Amino acid sequence: MNRADVVTLRVAGFTITLRRSPGGPLLCLETGYVRYIQPAPTATPDVMVVAHAGIPQDLATETDVLYKATKADQDFWTICQHGAGYRLITYSQTTPGIIQQVVLTDDDFRHWQVYAREQPANASGAIAVCPLEYPLGPLLFYYLTVNHDALMIHASGIHDGSAGRLFSGFSGVGKSTMARIWASTGSQVINDDRLIIRMEAHGYSIHNTPMPYADEPKQTGLDALYLPYHSPVNQAQRLRPAQAVSNLLAYSIVHGYDKRFLQHHLDFLVGLTAALPTTSLGVVPDPAIIHFIKAHENAHPVAQS
Amino acid sequence: MDLTPLIAKKHQYASRQVGGEYVIVPVRDNVAQMNTLITLNEVGSFIWDRLAQDATVESLAAAIVAEFDVSLEIAKRDLGAFLTSLTNTLKS
Question: Which chain A positions have a beta carbon within 8 Å of B34's beta carbon?
């Protein structure tokens, strides 16, 4: 993207405004964010991010740690209590031990002060800061879900022109495979890995979020949830509400160190599973699964959202 | 049976009643390992609801007898087994 003073993003229906600090370097974003940029700023964003160049040493030390995430035995990110709010520290995944960003945020995660490494100069010699450089972008999206009727979940989502369906589970259960099968018959794939589910006035909807690759913002209404697993035959079993909530929570992105977040996600899932059917789905990975799902839905109709 | 440790442990869980059952989730210092969810059936949910500071085995058994069609003897036996199982589950 061209480097900018102010950028407004719209992700999963949320508005995020990024501003550079007064006199600070211009902003830049990773490729996956470019198509989420809005033409004009909004007066009341859901999150305001102010980007600063450089990381103050006094903010870089981990104290009052609430949770420390690692990835492949490397520091990944850490969240600390910081007064009445929080301090997030993210680490480079290419240069172990190097801090990438430090964030100060208030208790409701609506105002983010992001201190980030300066990015190399571009062709015109301008340096920039990239405030949402991975993993901070997905972390910001997660913390949006703890203050709204929303949930981030490991799932693929499709719309076949008449209904929106979500397929959720751990890695390897066939989320991406399901998305490919539906795409092969003309369905729109919202995303094949991560979605945000929102409850809105008209019902539940699913949205994609910026990924490492360029993609359009996509959303659709949600009508049914499926928990696929590999099976020698296609088979379906509607889950009891408590089973559905337990399973979906396990596949959701949940920062379990804070009871407030857990309770919020539980409450959201109780509403979701009361409104929409959740079905355990044994899958043979070929296009016959589409006919099977539609036949199952016709045999077990539910009120659509 | 002293219920104090179990009652203290209860505060480390988020819980929500769902269709007559309870889903209870441990508050943990982790992000991705939501694989220790517990669901309680109707009677388990009834007991979980009443695991409060002044609860005793006797008061819980009496409440079960008042709510469900069961004798005090059976209520005490099943309650003991449930509390032992719950204590072990919440330890893990």
Answer: 249-250, 252, 254, 256
